[in-house]
Amino acid sequence: MYLKRLEIKGFKSFANNTVLEFLPPHDGRFSITAVVGPNGSGKSNVVDAIRWVMGEQSIKSLRGKKSEDVIFSGSENKGALGACEVTMTLDNNGAQNDLDYPEVVITRRLYRSGEGEYLINGNPVRLLDIHLFLAKSQFGQHSYSVVSQGTIDRLLIVNPSERKDFLDEASGIKEFQIKEHQAQLKLNRTRENMEQVSRLLVEVEPRLKLLARQVKKLEKRQEVELNLRETQERYYASLYWSNKKEIDRLESELKIIEENYRQEFSALEVAQNELAVLARSESRQEAFLVLQAKHQEAVRVKNEWERQLAILSGKMQTAYSQIGKQNIAWLEQKKTEAENSRKHLQEERERLDATLLRETEQVNQAQQKLAALADERTRLSVRISQLQTRAWQEQSDRNYLEASGLTAVKSLLDHRDKIGKVYGVLAELGEAPEDYRMALEVAAGQHLSSLVVDTDETAKKGIEYLRQEKLGVATFLPINKITGRPLSNDTHSLTAHDGVFGLAIDLINFDNRFKEIFSYVLGDTVVVRDLDAARNLGIGQWRMVTLEGDLIERRGVMRGGYRAGRKRGLSFSGRASLNTEDRQLNWEHDLHVEQENLQAVEKEWENLRTELIKIETVKQGLEAKAELLTQELKQKESEKAELERELSFVNMDPADYEKHLGGLATEKTFLSGELKKSTNALEVVAAEIADFNEQEEKKKQRVFLLQEQMQNHQNSVNQILNERNEHKIQLAKLETRQEDITAEVNNEMNVSVASIAERQQNVLTGAELETTAGDIQKLKYQLSLIGGIDEEVTKEYGETKERYEFLDGQLKDLQTATDNLEQMVEELSEVMKKKREASFKKIRKEFDRYFKILFGGGNAALEEIYGEPPAEEGEEVGEGVAVEVAEAAVEKVAKKDKVLTGVDIIVNPPGKKIKNLNALSGGERTLTSIALICAILNCNPSPFVVMDEVEAALDEANTLRFANIMAELAGQSQFVVITHNRVTMHAADALYGVTMGTEGISKVLSVELKDAPVLDSAQKVDN
Predict the structure, then answer these.
(1) What is the pLDDT of residues 827-873, one digit of tens each?
(2) 92-95: long-range contacts at Cβ-Cβ below 8 A with a sequence spacing of 24 or more?
(3) Longest pairwise C-alpha distance within the chain
(4) Alpha carbons 895 and 216: distance in angstroms, whole number
(5) Domain extent for 433
(6) Rounded Cα–Cα distance for residues 448 and 439 (Å)
(7) Which domain-ending residue is among 715, 730, 745?
(8) For the whole prediction, is pTM greater than 0.70?
(9) 903-953: per-residue pLDDT in tens?
């Protein structure tokens, strides 16, 4: 391996690209190249360029102050350059290094910005890579491979420790020293990392222990929570199923009760309607009068036929007795008496008819009043039944309010007179069809139980009353403050869409005074058929509610699901029991009043009935007397007519008499037939009267029976209503309890009770429930003792544990690396020691030989100095690492008592005995240094050696000796010599002349001496 080419560009005075080619080895030896030139021409810059490209970092050694001083700074005719570059090409054949290339090109660049780079064969490398390559190739750049001007005697003036370092480099252990240094740096860094990791472990370990305890507590908490959750699931599921079973039982019984109620109420209505029909039907007296008149007419007709038949019989008897005319005066007298008697009877009958007419009018008036009282009694019975039904319903509503926890609302309704005008709860101020009630109640929401009042002052009094009595809270809607929600123009057009029933406010009936209230509560809510209809209309555009109670808000919020059938008392049923101002009735008071009215009507009805019986008795007496007078009058008229006929018979001619007698027989036959017919007609009328009396008796019994049935049905309805109300109250309590369980489960476990009930089908008994409730409290108490632990602690524990394990692993790895590095350092130290000892013996021997050659005698020796190992210098490390290093050093000293600390030089020129090197003259010191360098080169030859005017202080004889030694060493190393000495020039194989013109730029001329003309010494020196 040798230096093949050196290319300099922009380095110091070499502004232009300058190339120095070096001769290859020939005849078994390397070339000697001399670089000559006048002082200041820049020839020493060639040495600086070689040192710079080989990685020299000391700018002072390169004769500069800062790094940019090595860049051409400019001259009068050429400006400064922005960068410099030096390229050294080495022939790598036969070299012992890791680069398998025939040529190795080392390049170094530097820019004025301070940036620089190293390249080997065009590839960027580190400075360390350059040093390792040169060390492996046996370049000793800091001791003997590059000897600069004025440093030839440096080996003599340095202290023994530094001299030892030079000799170590000369011993060929530079590579191992670099490796040892790198290993030591790594060891220091490793120990520092170990210290840092140890500190981190010290910091992490308490935290890990704390987290471990918290994780254990969390695991315990999770175990307790899991047990609590399972226990709660069993407990709440059992409560749910128990309540559900009881609710189902009550609902089933309630259905039966409702069916019984419908049947009993229907029977009650049938009885009421039939009784009303009977009350409105024709009275008994009127029908009896018709039949009585019909009977009297039949009696009259029969009597008339009997009278006529009697008259005819008298005529026939007169005719048969053939009474003479002597009876005419007696007949005339009888006729006059009969006429007078008839007139008297006629007058008596007229007076009796007038009295009978008055009695008849009284009877008719009493019968009409009695019929009206019967109607009023029936009406009052129906009214009482209705009031009782409403009273029970009112009580059911109030019981529901109390059972549902709306005690405040109930109390305000009961004491409305204390606070002002309270119209009632909103749910009872409107009436809606049954099909829309569910949707409207969901749309009204929490305002369903809000109280509507006249003014905000009333609301204020109500709030103060509730606060004073500690009855809870209520919501008030004052009419004078509530303003309805405005509707957009296109809102009413929504009803044209399929599945839209209309605006909620349009589907409910209410008093106009509450318009603003219902507008505020229901606003622009649209009632639709189902969710599909709502989606077609546009989710988020309107507030909509379905018939099943699913609510869609304007902002797109949807709330719905399964809703059980409505069983509550608050609904838009339109009952006025609690709502309107004009019909604020007290059902118990009204019922009491109507019952008193019914008692009064029944008493009056009985009194009138008694009076009517008396009047009818008098009337019947008068009618009987009138009947007798009529009979007497008819008898007198018949007697008068008979007397008149007898007079006519007496005055009749015999011829007419016979004729008339024959006609009487025929007339008798006719009268007998008519009499029979009238007798039959009278029997028919008598049968009708008997049947009428029988029917009237049955009707009377039916009325009494209906009244009794109606009372029984009313009692049954009341009993059923009572039972239904009790069931509803129990059902409301159970539903409230179920809602409380649902809310409690949601708050406690954040799940729905239905999902728990699906998983837990077994129902605990009462004793088991009490035990389970106690277990829940115990588990909650355990949780309170454990306390709240963040769930993230598990994640943090895992991360901390993972970090701790990682750091612990890193610490173990670092400890292993430390052991390996310490072993490596010991091995390198052992290798260097062996190689140093072998090389030192050879160098010491050759040093003495070359000293004798150069001095012509005398002796020289190298003496090893042993002592305590010096403190290692390196990078600053932590306190813990420094302690460990010190402990390691003490351990080494204990193992090896003494170590090589330096090398001393002992020389004795011929005829002299020198105790101190400072006693040598300048030439002697130079010769001693050259002898030591030549000894080093002989023992550990470098691929090439650069010497900068090292022989300048020698005379010609000593220079010749030096040239001979250099020629001898050329068999092992290539030499590049900067010189002025002609003897040295003469020993060179090639010359490079360096000149500098007025432009301040160094230029190079080359001469190969084998081709140069032979000159004498004087000419050589001049050149």
Answers:
(1) 777 777 777 777 788 888 888 898 888 888 888 888 888 877 655 44
(2) 92/1, 93/1, 94/1, 95/1, 95/137, 95/943
(3) 245
(4) 51
(5) 423-567
(6) 12
(7) 745
(8) no
(9) 888 888 888 888 787 888 878 888 888 888 888 888 878 888 998 888 888
